[in-house]
Inverse folding.
C-alpha cells in the first residue's frame, strides 16, 4: 500500500484528535508504522506551529499553510481550521494537487461549498468530509438494515443533538459565536453532524421549515471582561423536515440543553420496523421488528439491542467485542503509570491491588473445591 503523508492544517481541539487518530491507524489495521504519517503542520503562529510539531513528532511546521501545500512530501492535507478558512485552503490545496480531508461544516455558505466541490472534481483529487459519527459500527449496521428494507416504508424520523456548552451567559465570545468566522451557530456546528447522519441513512432532504434563535444575545468579549459583544449566530435550531418520499421528520439542535453533555440520538419509524441510536450508548443499535410474533403476552416483540460494538471491517486491534472507548482507557491507564514514574508518585492500580485480586481469585477456586466460605486477607 503506498504511504500517505499528511499535512495537518490547524492544531486546536480537533487537530489534536486527528493527529492521534492517524497515529492509531497502523495499530488498528495492522499496518507498518510509517504507512501513515504527519509530515508537517500549519497553524497561524510560528510558536503554536512549532509546539504542534513537537507534540506530533514531525519536522516541518509553518505559520503559512501554503508552505505545506508547496511540499512534495505531502500527499494530502487535513483542514482542521475554523470554518471561514475551509474554502480558501481547500481551493489552494486542490490547485496544488493535494488530496483533502476537511472538517465540518464544509464551508460558510452554499456558494463556497459549490466552488469547493467543483474545484476538487476539476483537480481530480480525493476530498472527504469529517462526518465522523457515521463510522460507529452501529450506524453502519443501521445503514445496512435500511438499504435491505428492514424498516419498510419510512413514516417519520426524529434526530436530536443537544449540548449544554453555551448555557452559561458568562461563557465568553469565541470564533464559534461570530458569524463572519463560523457561518452559522449551533445549526452549523452540531446540526451538520446530526443532519449528515440522517441524510446518510435516509437520503436527500426535500424541504425544511425551521426556527432558529439566539437565547443569549450578548456575551463577554473575554473571560472576566465586563465588556460584551453581540452574538450573531443561533444557539438553538428546531427543524421540521420532509423527504422526497413524503416522510416527515423533526431535528432538534441546541447548545442550550442543560445537562445534555453530548446528547445525539435519532429514531426512524417505518411500517415494518424502527431503529434507534443514542450516542451515549454507541456500541448498540436498537431495532424493532413488526414481523416478530406478539403472542403470547407480547411474544418476543419489542426494541432489542444489536451488538454492533466495535465491528470495524479489517480491524486487527482492539478485538471487536471491546467498547468504543477501549483504546482510550488503555491510554489513560498507561498515562497514570508514566506520570507515576515522572513524578515519583505511587502507582494505582498497584501490585498490591493486583495481589488482592489474586487472593480473591485463589479464594474463589479454593471455595469452589471445598464448598465453604474462604476468608481473604485485607489489601491494606
Ligand atoms: N468533527 C468533529 O467532531 C469536530 C469537533 C470539533 C471541531 N470540529 C471542526 O473543526 C474545525 C476546527 O475546530 P477546533 O475546535 O479545532 O478549533 P480551534 O479554535 O480549537 O483550533 C483552530 C486551529 O486552526 C488554526 N488556524 C486558524 N486559521 C488558520 C489558517 N488560516 N491556517 C492555518 N491554521 C489556522 C489555529 O491556529 C488553531 O490551531 C472547525 O471547522 C470545527 O467545526 C469538528
Amino acid at each position: 500500500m503506498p504511504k500517505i503523508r499528511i499535512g495537518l492544517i490547524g492544531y486546536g481541539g480537533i487537530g489534536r484528535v486527528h493527529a492521534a487518530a492517524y497515529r492509531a491507524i497502523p495499530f488498528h489495521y495492522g499496518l507498518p508504522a510509517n504507512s501513515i504519517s504527519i509530515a508537517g503542520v500549519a497553524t497561524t503562529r510560528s510558536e503554536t506551529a512549532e509546539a504542534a510539531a513537537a507534540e506530533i513528532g514531525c519536522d516541518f511546521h509553518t505559520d503559512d499553510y501554503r508552505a505545506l501545500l508547496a511540499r512534495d512530501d505531502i500527499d494530502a492535507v487535513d483542514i482542521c481550521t475554523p470554518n471561514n478558512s475551509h474554502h480558501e485552503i481547500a481551493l489552494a490545496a486542490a490547485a496544488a494537487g493535494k488530496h483533502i480531508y476537511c472538517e465540518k461544516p464544509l464551508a460558510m455558505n452554499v456558494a463556497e461549498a459549490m466552488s469547493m466541490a467543483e474545484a476538487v472534481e476539476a483537480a481530480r483529487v480525493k476530498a472527504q468530509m469529517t462526518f465522523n459519527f457515521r463510522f460507529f459500527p452501529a450506524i453502519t449496521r443501521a445503514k445496512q438494515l435500511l438499504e435491505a428494507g428492514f424498516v419498510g416504508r419510512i413514516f417519520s424520523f426524529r434526530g436530536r443533538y443537544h449540548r449544554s456548552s453555551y448555557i452559561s451567559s458568562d461563557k465568553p465570545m469565541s470564533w464559534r459565536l461570530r458569524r463572519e468566522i463560523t457561518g452559522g451557530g449551533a445549526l452549523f456546528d452540531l446540526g451538520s453532524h446530526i443532519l449528515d447522519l440522517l441524510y446518510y441513512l435516509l437520503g436527500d432532504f426535500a424541504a425544511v421549515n425551521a426556527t432558529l434563535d439566539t437565547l443569549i444575545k450578548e456575551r463577554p468579549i473575554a473571560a472576566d471582561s465586563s465588556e460584551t459583544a453581540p452574538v450573531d449566530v443561533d444557539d438553538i435550531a428546531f427543524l421540521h423536515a420532509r423527504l422526497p418520499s413524503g416522510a416527515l421528520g423533526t431535528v432538534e439542535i441546541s447548545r442550550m440543553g442543560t445537562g445534555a453533555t453530548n446528547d445525539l440520538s435519532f429514531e426512524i419509524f417505518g411500517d415494518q420496523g424502527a431503529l434507534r441510536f443514542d450516542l451515549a450508548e454507541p456500541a448498540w443499535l436498537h431495532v424493532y421488528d413488526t414481523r416478530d410474533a406478539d403472542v403470547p403476552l407480547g411474544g418476543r416483540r419489542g426494541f432489542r439491542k444489536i451488538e454492533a460494538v466495535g465491528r470495524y471491517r479489517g480491524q486487527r486491534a482492539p478485538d471487536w467485542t471491546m467498547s468504543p472507548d477501549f483504546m482510550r482507557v488503555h491510554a489513560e491507564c498507561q498515562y497514570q503509570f508514566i506520570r507515576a514514574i515522572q513524578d515519583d508518585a505511587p502507582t494505582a492500580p498497584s501490585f498490591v491491588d493486583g495481589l488482592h485480586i489474586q487472593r480473591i481469585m485463589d479464594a474463589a477456586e479454593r471455595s469452589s473445591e471445598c464448598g465453604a466460605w474462604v476468608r481473604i486477607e485485607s489489601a491494606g
User: Anything to note?
Assistant: The pocket of nicotinamide-adenine-dinucleotide is lined by residues 9-15, 42-44, 48, 65, 80-83, 85, 103-104, 130, 132, 189 (CB under 6 Å). The chain has a mean pLDDT of 97. The two ends are 54 Å apart (CA to CA). Residues 352 and 379 are 7 Å apart (CA to CA).
